[in-house]
Q: What sequence folds into this?
């Protein structure tokens, strides 16, 4: 009986791999877009504009204070009322990108703030513009503080991408959900789902830990 | 070169600069000393607008620093600033530290800048350390790189904010040597320091500040042997004892 | 769209929302308590000198951290029945939340215990304090300062995670929004009200976290 289900599962493997590909696509696009947006917001948050600081801060709070599932439902069900009709895939990307950007924004802002104030003064005193300071002095040093939690955030986003299955995106989780209707062996099916996520996430977690160790050792005592 | 006219600055309620009237000529070396909290660091930091003044006029090299419309990037290129904490860029070598501003602000070509940088680092005695990172250098060496970083911009003015206060005693001299040579070459310098020996030998004038005011300013011979102000006498007796 | 925002319907559904609000609270709360128990156990196993115990806890923690919560929820929801274990959806939900959060709690606790400098423990031993005295007066007060803020963070995460339980038909806050969408075709009123409730919980927890950090910093700076 058990072996029957196992063979069924093995036959479904291509189906799961398609789902895996969708997970990678959704996460990948959102990671890249979210990183770009997150760095932009994070840099803006460290500037002198109080208005922008609070504006972005309020948005970040909103996103961090509500479940991702609710955010996706809002994008998918409420935007159509305002006239914006989105398919599941774009809706998923927009929500996940936004989620990523909000968390990455905070990581980047913290990283920039961690650069000693004297560095910015020295750069200013040499006559470098704000943009030049950011590019040559501040960001290279901030990256040490940003990189480990950034990679950690990527892992979180890949896991959060499983939630998009709720609006019908055909990712690994949805593949499992559909399969378990035919192959009523929840343990086996979702163990497989778990293994597939594990393959993507575990190396990234190890990378994040490695980066944390490397970056920690590299800092000197000023 | 540098003119303070009726300058005032407040930090909240604290009147940190109180009616400063001071002029520094080209080629002059001015040493500023005084107890901590007297405003001497603030004074020097106003010259390149790391701090802004609230009242009065501050004119540097003909440009109105007190006017917010004045764009400081051009003026700062003419002023070298040496910090107490060195503030070298830890992710760059000594050569990269000194060539960053010349290449990005003065738009000098990389090869030229590197040649010039090598020469300046030689001049401060660090020709063999051009590819070292700050973490590999001693405090005295780092401060000399910081001075070289300022010099590579070929500034008209060099400002020093307590350059030796963060150094171990045995490294103070190597930095003072470099500063002495600079003065001999006719550089306009304003130096905030406690090193009275340096003041006596190198300065054209010595000024003392207390509670935001310049109490006395005179050539070193007068300043040290015959100070006019009581507070100057008191300060000198405290600082010269050790 | 906003002119048509129907506050009267929201008022009509308020009893449902309040009931679901309580459900979210008790589901998260149960998950929090459960995860403290599981987390303490897993942490003790992880830091024990037995390679078997440490390894077992390690496998548990890494599996949880490398797989999405939704997959874990489905794992129990579809898997337990196939083992013949019939429990209510609520129970399944609490089990999934507990086991998920427990892994993160274990890591938080581990960081807390390891954060107390070894020199402190040596000093305590040198003053001839016994194990329990050392724990009570030296280790735990300092470990608490390091663990309470992340634990409150985990509490916030749990509340947001509980939203996923709506996908296995549990009547909680997100489900209330879904019900309003399906019964009245008013996703805006439904999900925005849901979002507001979550934000209330979020800001309350954030204030508690800020307040506790003020009191604990006193502890550390002495």
A:
């Amino acid at each position: 009986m058990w072996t029957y289900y196992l063979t069924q599962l093995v036959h479904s493997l291509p189906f799961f791999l398609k789902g895996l590909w969708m997970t990678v696509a959704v996460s990948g696009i959102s990671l890249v877009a979210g990183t770009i947006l997150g760095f932009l917001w994070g840099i803006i948050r460290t500037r002198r504009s109080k208005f922008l600081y609070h504006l972005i801060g309020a948005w970040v709070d909103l996103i961090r204070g509500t479940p991702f599932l609710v955010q996706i439902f809002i994008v998918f069900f409420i935007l159509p009322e305002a006239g914006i009709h989105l398919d599941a895939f774009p809706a998923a990307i927009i929500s996940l990108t936004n989620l990523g950007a909000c968390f990455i924004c905070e990581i980047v802002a913290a990283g920039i703030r961690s650069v000693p104030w004297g560095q910015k003064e020295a750069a200013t005193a040499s006559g470098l513009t704000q943009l030049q300071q950011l590019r040559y002095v501040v960001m290279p040093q901030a990256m040490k503080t940003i990189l480990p939690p950034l990679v950690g955030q990527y892992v979180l986003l890949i896991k959060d991408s499983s939630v998009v299955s709720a609006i019908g995106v055909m990712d690994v989780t949805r593949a499992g959900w559909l399969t378990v209707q035919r192959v009523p062996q929840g343990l086996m099916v979702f163990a497989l789902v778990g293994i597939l996520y594990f393959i993507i996430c575990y190396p990234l977690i190890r990378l994040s830990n490695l980066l944390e160790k490397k970056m920690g050792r590299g800092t000197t005592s000023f | 070169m540098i003119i303070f006219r009726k300058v005032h600055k407040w930090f909240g309620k604290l009147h940190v600069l109180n009616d400063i009237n001071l002029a520094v000529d080209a080629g002059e070396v001015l040493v500023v000393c005084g107890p901590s909290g007297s405003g001497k660091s603030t004074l020097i930091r106003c010259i390149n607008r790391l701090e802004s003044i609230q009242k009065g006029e501050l004119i540097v090299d003909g440009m109105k620093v007190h006017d917010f419309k004045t764009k400081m990037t051009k003026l700062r290129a003419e002023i070298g600033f040496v910090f107490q904490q060195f503030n070298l860029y830890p992710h760059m070598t000594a050569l990269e530290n000194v060539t960053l501003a010349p290449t990005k602000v003065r738009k000098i070509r990389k090869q030229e800048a590197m040649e010039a940088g090598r020469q300046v680092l030689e001049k401060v005695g660090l020709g063999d350390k051009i590819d070292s990172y700050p973490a590999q250098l001693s405090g005295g060496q780092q401060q000399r790189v910081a001075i070289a970083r300022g010099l590579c911009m070929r500034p008209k003015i060099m400002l020093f904010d307590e350059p030796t206060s963060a150094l171990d005693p045995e490294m103070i001299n190597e930095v003072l040597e470099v500063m002495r040579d600079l003065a001999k070459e006719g550089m306009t310098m304003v130096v905030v320091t406690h090193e009275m020996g340096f003041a006596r030998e190198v300065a054209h004038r010595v000024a003392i500040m207390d509670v935001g005011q310049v109490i006395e300013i005179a050539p070193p011979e007068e300043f040290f042997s015959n100070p006019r102000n009581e507070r100057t006498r008191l300060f000198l007796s405290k600082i010269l004892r050790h | 769209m906003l002119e048509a925002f129907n506050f009267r319907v929201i008022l009509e559904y308020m009893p449902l929302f309040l009931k679901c609000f309580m459900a979210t609270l008790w589901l998260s709360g149960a998950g929090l308590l459960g995860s403290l128990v599981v987390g303490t156990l897993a942490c003790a196993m992880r830091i024990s000198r037995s390679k078997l115990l440490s390894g077992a806890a390690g496998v548990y923690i890494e599996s949880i951290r490398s797989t999405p919560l939704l997959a874990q929820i489905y794992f129990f929801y579809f898997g337990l029945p196939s083992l013949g274990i019939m429990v209510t959806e609520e129970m399944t939900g609490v089990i999934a939340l507990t086991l998920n959060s427990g892994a993160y709690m274990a890591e938080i606790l581990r960081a807390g215990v390891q954060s107390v400098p070894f020199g402190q423990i040596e000093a305590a031993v040198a003053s001839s304090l016994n194990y329990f005295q050392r724990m009570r007066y030296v280790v735990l007060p300092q470990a608490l300062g390091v663990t309470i803020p992340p634990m409150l963070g985990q509490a916030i995460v749990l509340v947001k995670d509980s939203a996923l339980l709506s996908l296995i038909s549990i009547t909680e806050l997100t489900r209330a929004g879904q019900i309003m969408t399906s019964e009245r075709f008013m996703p805006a009123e439904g999900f925005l009200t849901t979002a507001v409730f979550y934000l209330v919980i979020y800001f309350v927890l954030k204030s508690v976290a800020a307040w506790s950090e003020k009191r604990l910093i006193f502890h550390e700076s002495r």
About this structure: Chain A touches chain B at residues 116, 118-119, 121-129, 132, 136-137, 140-141, 220, 222 (CB under 8 Å). The first helix of chain A runs from residue 2 to 11. Confidence is low (pLDDT under 50) at residues 218-222 of chain A. The radius of gyration of chain A is 21 Å.
